[in-house]
Amino acid sequence: MKSICITAILTFLSLPLFSQEKSAMEGEKSKVYTVFGKTWQVTKYSDGSKIYEWDIEDIDYSNYHSNKYSKFSTNFLEPEVGINIWPSDKGAPAVKPWGSWYVALNTTGTWKPSKNFHLKSALGVNWYNFKFEDPNQIAVKTPDGLEFQDFQDDLGIVDGTATKSKISASFVNLTLVPSVRTNDGNFRFGVGGYAGLRIGGRGKFVYEDSDGDKQKQFEKSNMYVDNFRYGLRSELGIGDFTLFMNYDLNDLFEPGKGPELQAMSFGILLD
Question: What ranges in 101-215 are assigned the alpha helix state H?
Fold first, then answer.
């Protein structure tokens, strides 16, 4: 037993000498630890062996840094800007892309398990605007459902000129998009999904009366837009630009209260 203890002590005392012999080998990683004023360094070599050096002094911490990077990053404000469209052959007026704005404000978090795979989640608010191509068409909410009426024929306003007609809705959205990317991140592609809860909606109609004065009419209601929405999302990034596309899988309007159609949005992500 005594001989074993002596051997262990001699081995422990010989560690600094052994570390000097191994210093000629190429090391993979070195880390410095300090606890209660005591400092030691651990060096791991390519052959799997480790060297422990105790009571390291005169370490220049000004040049010391860790190569370890964070695997999770956040972006408090990540806006999106784009346009909305819907199919024009489903019983609804054709929408005008320029003016049917899609705007979103998100807070995002990205998990980065590797250089080539990221998983982004986003929570935010987005606004859907659908501006009718023909401003004479008005969305009118009736007890039986949403009706699209003509400005002059149905409302009887003959001495006026319609200038704008649209409906809009706002949602709180949760989005999840896994993506693959090149090592330098200059090319990125991801496909995921989203789900949202409606928090607002209204209809708006603007026309000029016979005196040339602008008149506005608002329908402050949900316009029978469904309370929930869910769909698929894709993102394509090239350099500093990221394009997105959202496609709703459910109908935009409540069942039996409006046309059976799905909305789609696309635009650019402003990082």
Answer: none
The arithmetic mean of pLDDT across residues 188-201, rounded, is 96
Taking Cα atoms as reference points, which of 49, 48, 46, 41 lies closest to residue 27? 46
**Token digits for 175?**
């989005």
Is the confidence at residue 184, as pLDDT, over 50?
Answer: yes
Identify the burial level of 102 via C-beta atoms within 10 angstroms of its C-beta, where 0-12 means exposed, 13-18 middle and 19 or more buried.
Answer: buried
32-68 burial string, b = 16+ CB within 10 Å, else e? eeeeeeeeebebebeeeeebebeeeeeeeeeeeeeee
Q: Where are the beta strands (DSSP E) in 55-210?
A: 72-85, 101-114, 117-131, 137-142, 145-150, 161-181, 187-208
Q: What is the mean pLDDT of residues 160-186?
A: 93
DSSP, residue by residue, 210-266: TTS-EEEEEE-S-TTB-SEEEEEEEEEEETTEEEEEEEESS-SBPTTTS-----EEE
Please list the residues that pair with 161 across neighbouring strands.
Answer: 208
Mean pLDDT calculated for residue range 213-219:
85
The Cα–Cα gap between 267 and 83 comes to 6
Which residue, 271, 86, 78, 122, is CA-closest to 185?
271
What domains can be seen in the chain, in order of their start residue?
Answer: 2-63 (no CATH), 72-269 (2.40.160.20)
Q: How many helices (H) and strands (E) does the chain have?
A: 2, 14
Question: Can you tell me the mean pLDDT for 80-89?
Answer: 94
Q: How far apart are alpha carbons 101 and 170 in whole angstroms?
A: 12
Q: What is the pTM of this model?
A: 0.71
Statement: residue 45 has pLDDT above 60: yes
